[in-house]
Amino acid sequence: MQSESSLEYLKVATADLGQALRRFCDHVCPAFSTVELPKEAQSRARRTEKAGRPTSQARQTKVFNLDTPKLHSLGDYSVTIPLIGPSNLWSTQDVSIRTLLTYV
């Protein structure tokens, strides 16, 4: 059960996490050169080949991305929980009718 105080703690913790992630992105990430995993490079090469574009097995540079839906939506949880309940009661996953029928 969520209380007003626990939701306020969540709001503060989310803001602190956001600041820590931005510091990590600004100060720690530039110190490291990261590339995609071999498996990721192979998968990307298969996708581009399937699309008819030139392929390369070379591993591309990867950077930490703060602009993902999962990270971007963290700040909305403290507002959403009082409206529709805790996040273990709902999902953002796309559901097809076939998936729904498997549970009936």
Give me the strand/helix succession. HHHHH
Strand share of the residues? under 5%
Q: What spatial form do the alpha-carbon principal axes imply?
A: flat
Largest β sheet strand count, sense and barrel closure: none
Structural class: mainly alpha
Total helical segments: 5
Helix content: 40-55%
Structure notes:
- The chain is an all-alpha fold and 104 residues long.
- The radius of gyration is 20 Å and the shape is flat.
Short description:
It contains five helices and no strands. It has 104 residues and is an all-alpha fold.
Features:
flat, single chain, mainly alpha, 104 residues
Write the topology of this structure:
Blueprint: H1 4-28, H2 38-50, H3 69-72, H4 77-84, H5 97-102
Helix pairs in contact: 1-4
